[in-house]
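In response to reviewer comment 3 from the previous cycle, which asked for concrete evidence that the modeling workflow produces usable outputs, we include below a single protein chain processed end to end. The sequence was submitted unchanged, and the resulting structure tokens are shown without manual editing.
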Amino acid sequence: MRYLISGYYGEGNAGDEAILAGILQEVRREDARAEFTVLSFNPEDTVSRHRVPASSTSLRDPRRLVSLLRRSDLLISGGGSMLHEADFELHGRSFLLRAGKLRPIPYFLSIVMAARALNRPVMWYAQGLGPLHTSAARWAVRLAVGASQVVCWRDREAALLAARVGARAGMQAVVPDPAYALRAPDPETVDAVLEQRAGAWLARTGGAGFLAVCPRPWLNRRAYQAHLVQALAEVCGRTGLGALFLPFQERTDGPMCEALADAPAFAGRAACLHHVDQPQLLLGLLGRARAAVTMRLHAGILSAAAGTPCVPIAYDPKVHSFAAQTGQEGFLVTSDELEVEDGTRRLRESLECTLAQERARRLGLERRVAPLKRTAGATAHLAVQLAGGRLFVPC
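The workflow returned the following structure tokens.
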């Protein structure tokens, strides 16, 4: 069967690329003859990274989109946090445009509605939802969900929000994020990358190990960054651990991670590993950490998949959902808490508690994540059934 996949791909975001990698991996397991085309903001990057054909994003070439849809057996709206107004604080009540460009909800839902106008089936694959601040966004979600055959939400909170806004599809389910299904490279490959890229720095830490740190810029705020450094430096100083910063989106996170790693408070115990943008390799690196501090959602998901406990920093409801899903909500610190001085103490205590209870934390995490890994493939089974006409869902 032929699958057209729409999502936030080709923008250098390791989380979104992990979603796509997971979808491709699991659909191929169910359909060995699957043919894919991915709508990408950077087709060359997508072809190189995932070894699948890619096309430019749809609204830049609507005739090309129509052609691709006509040739496809299924449109997969490919997971992630595409349907949100999380930037509402910066951009206000505008539903359609942000700096002259379509905002995420109208952009991605336009692709769904184009598929339905051409009578092509649509599946939302582990889709996040929210926050939805405007009535226009809620209306658009209701319309597109109602027009789609299968809508699979990434977490319970997304499904509950959909119900609150009256969005109902022919079939709905809550499913794991596709990234839970990914496999890390062999240990030798991960060790070689660490040795080549950070060997000298790791040697200076005396073999104690490291904390993986995956922050992101947020709403032009600065205080949480200083408090993050303070808490990490205190924990590293007491335990002998290093802090390894892993940017999940090089363009935005890279400069910030470099600046934080260079902070004098670390006294040389921190480093930044740039341009590690293969999700499977990030999974392997996170698996080497004693613990992780994750602001990026998929840094948390890949940490959990690797068995590494994390302290999530929640800047968005999706991070709360992840923490609850993996049983780590008791260790979560919000970005608002981290903005104030007391946030340093909260983060430090969560990290120290994690390290003190590391074995128990890992065992608890394994119990929560094992079923997510096992059931990740069931979503792909639904997609293959729908594409092959073996699943009839009225809409």
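The chain has two domains: 2-175+375-387, 187-356. We consider this sufficient to address the reviewer's concern, and the full set will be provided in the supplementary archive.
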